[in-house]
Amino acid sequence: MTVGESDPVAFQAAVRAVTQETGAGRTAALRGLGELVAGRPGLRSRAVAALADGLRAPVGADGWDADARREAGRVLAALLRPAAQAPARSVDPDADPEPPPAVDLDLRAATLVDLDLAGAVLGAARFADARFLGATSFADARFTGVADFARTVWHGPARFSRAGFLDHAAFGRARFRADADFTGVRFAAFAWFGRGEDELWEDDPAWETIEETSPAPWDEPNEDDPHWPVAVLMGDYQEWSEGGDGARFVGPVSFRQARFAGPAWFFKARFASAASFRQARFAGPVHLDQPTVDLAGATWADTADDGPVCWPLGWTPAPAGPDGAQLVPDDSVRPYAGQLADADPDVRRAGLAVLVDLGDARPELRQRVVDTVCGYLRMPLPFDLADARTDGQAAELELRRTAQRLLAARLRPSTDAPGGPPHWSGTDLMLCGATLVDLDLGGCHIGHADFTGVQFHGDTGFAGSVFAGAAFRLGGGDGRASFHGPVSFAGARLDRRRGVREVLGEVAGHAGVVLDEAVSPPG
After folding, report:
1. What is the DSSP letter of 488?
2. Entry's InterPro entries (predicted)?
3. What pLDDT is stored for residue 517 in this prediction?
4. Of all helices (H) and strands (E), which one includes residue 35?
C-alpha cells in the first residue's frame, strides 16, 4: 500500500495546507501536494478535485492570486499527463498493469492563468464559463469524455493543436480574444462552435441549476449583451437555425488538417480575421458559411445522411474521389473568393462590389450573397467605437457602412430612377450579434430578419420598413439588441401579426427611440 492511501492523514494535511496557506506558503503547499500524489493513482482524482475547488474560487478570494493559480495549473498538468499517471511498479517485474482511468475535471467558472495541459489525458472536462488568462495550451491533449468549453473567455493565445476529442466538444459562445490554433485536431463526435444557447428538453433536471450558471461578464468592445450567455432554448421545439450566436474569434484561427468525424457546426460563429481550414477533412453534416474561410485542399466524405450541409459562397465539393470530395473554388464566383478576408480594405471593398454585382445578375444567388455580406457585418470589430480612431479604423468603419448601403439599396423596392439596382425581394437578413454603424433600412422590404443581440451604433433608421418578421431578442430580456444612438421606427411594420412594441420588447435604448404604430399589422 502506498503512502497516503494507507495514511489518509498525510493527504488531508496536504490539502488543508493548500486551503489555509497564502502567498509563497500556498505555492509551496501546492508543490507538496503534487509530490505526495505523484505515482499514486489512487489519490489522483481526489487531488485533482481539491485543486479544482481552489481554481474555481473567485479572483482574490482566500489568497488565490495569479501565482497560486499558475502553480495549481502546473500541479494539475503533472497529475493529468500519462507519465505521472502510471501506478507504482508491481512486485512482478513482468506485469503490465492497466493504465488508470482518465480523471474527470470540473473547472466550470474557474479563472486559470497560463494553463498548460499539453499532453494531458482527461475524462469529462467541464470548463464552461471559465476564464483563461495568459497563454493556454491543450496541444496533444486527449479528451475521452465530453469536453464543455461553452461561454469560455480566452484572453491570450489558445493552442489545441493535435488534440483529440473522443466525445462531443462544445465551444458555443466561446470568446477567443487572440489567436486560436486547432491545427490537426481530431473531433470524433460533435464539434460544436455554433450558437451559444444550451438546448434542454422539458424534463431535463438541468433546468433546476440554470440559475447557478456564472458566465463571465460580456465586456467585448462595442457590445452590450449581459443576458445572452445563459440563454436556454426548449429542445422540443429548437431547430438548427434558431437562436443566438456562436463562438467569437478576434484573431487568426487555424483548423488546418483538422478531422471532423461527426458534425462540424459553425453556424452563427464569428470570425474577425482569416480562418484557415486548409486540408481539413469533414465527414458528417457541416455548417461553415463564413466569408473569411479558406478551404483549399479540404475534403468532404459526403456521409451527412441527409443532414444539413452549408459551405461558404464560392466553395463547392468536386466529384467524390477515393478520399472524398475535394472543396474547390466555384468558377462562377471565383473573383470574390477570399477577398473579404484580405487585410487591405480596398481589396475587401472590391470583393463586396463583385458580390452584389453577382446578385444583381443572378437572382438564384441573391440570398447566398446577402448571407455572405451579413457574415462580413457580423465580424467583430477589434477596436472600441468610443475611443479616438486611427485612419485605418475609420476606413474599416466606412467599409462596414458601404456593405450596409449596398444591401439596403437592393432591399428597397425599385423606383423609376434609371440605372438603379434591382429589388431583391423576399430576402432574409441574418445579422445576429453584429455591430452595425449608421444602419439605414428605411423603406426596405425584407423577408425575415434576425437582429438578436445586434449592437446598433450611430443613427439607425427603420422608418417605413416592412418585414415578414423580425427578431430583436431571444425571449424576455435574453439576447436583446441595443441601440446606442437614436433610432426611428416611424411607420415601420416589423411583423405581419405583431406590433412594433411587441416585437422590440425589452431591447435596450440608450438614446431617442421614435415609435409610430400608425401602420398596424393586419389582424
Report:
1. E
2. 5peptide_repeat
3. 54
4. helix 23-37
Which long-range contacts link 294-301 to residues 24+ away (Cβ below 8 Å)? Answer: 294/338, 294/341, 295/327, 296/327, 297/326, 297/327, 298/326, 298/327, 299/323, 299/324, 299/325, 299/326, 299/327, 300/324, 300/325, 300/327, 301/325
pLDDT tens-place string over residues 201-255: 777 777 777 777 777 788 888 888 766 667 666 655 544 445 567 899 999 999 9
Residue indicated by cell numbers 422540443: 236
Question: Which residue is it, cell 449583451?
Answer: 225
CA separation (Å) from 256 to 184, 188, 262, 279?
6, 16, 17, 6
Q: How far is residue 308's CA from residue 61's CA, in Å, rounded to a whole number?
A: 47
Instruction: Name residue 446's beta-bridge partners.
Output: 467
Whether 295 and 328 have beta carbons less than 8 Å apart is answered as no
Intervals of the chain under pLDDT 70: 1-7, 61, 83-100, 196-199, 226-229, 231-244, 304-306, 334-335, 337, 415-417, 476-477, 510, 512, 516-523
* Residue-wise DSSP of 370-409: HHHHHHHHTSPPSS-TTS---HHHHHHHHHHHHHHHHHHH
The DSSP call for residue 6 is S
Phi, psi of 467 (to 5 degrees): -120, 145
Contacts 24+ apart (CB under 8 A), 143-147: 143/167, 143/169, 144/102, 145/102, 145/104, 146/170, 147/122
Query: What's residue 244's pLDDT?
Result: 60
Distance CA(89)–CA(39), nearest Å, equals 9
- On whether the CB atoms of residues 105 and 126 are closer than 8 A, the answer is yes
Closest to 254 (Cα-Cα) out of 270, 276, 273: 276
Assess contact for 280 and 298: CB atoms under 8 A. Answer: yes
Report pLDDT for 233.
Answer: 65
For the chain, the first-to-last Cα distance in angstroms comes to: 79
Q: Could you tell me the three cell numbers for 454?
A: 445586434
Q: How many angstroms separate the CA atoms of 470 and 447, rounded?
A: 8
Beta bridge partners of 185: none
In the prediction, which pLDDT does 97 show? 45
**Helices 23-37 + 66-80 axis angle, to 10:** 0
Helix (H) or strand (E) holding 287: strand 286-287
Integer Cα distance of 100 and 508 in angstroms: 53
The values of phi and psi at residue 256, to 5°, are -60, 135
pLDDT in tens, 60-99: 767 789 999 999 999 999 999 986 555 444 444 444 445 5
Residue with cell 460580456: 218
